[in-house]
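Review form for a predicted model. The reviewer records the input and the model, then writes brief findings.
Reviewer: anonymous (R2)
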Amino acid sequence: TMIIAARKWKNKGGTSQRSCSCGSWKQHWMKFSGQTRPNECSILDCHQKATLGAHIYCTNSGSHDEYIVPACDSCNKLTEEFYLKKSVTLVPASKQKTCDKP
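Model under review:
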C-alpha cells in the first residue's frame, strides 16, 4: 500500500465484471490497506459515503498500474480526471500482487 501525492487520476472503464477472492473490491481494499472502511469517498471535494472499491489509474505517471480506492457510486462513474484526498491509501488492483499471491 502507499499514499500518493495529488496527481490526476481517472476511473478505469470496463471493470464492473472483475472479481477477486476477497468477495468485493471494497473488501479487497480493507484487507490490503489494513484499514476499516472510511466513511467518505476518496475523491477530493466529495463528501458522500464510500460504498465501493473503485479501479483507478494515474494519468500523469507514465505507469498503467491500477489501484483500488474507496469511492461513492457517482464518483465511480466519473469519466473526467480527478484528484484524490491527501490521506487516501492506494491498494494495488493486481490480484497477483495481493489476493492471488502465491
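Findings: The first helix runs from residue 25 to 33.
Further findings: The CA atoms of residues 40 and 49 lie 5 Å apart.
Recommendation: see findings above.
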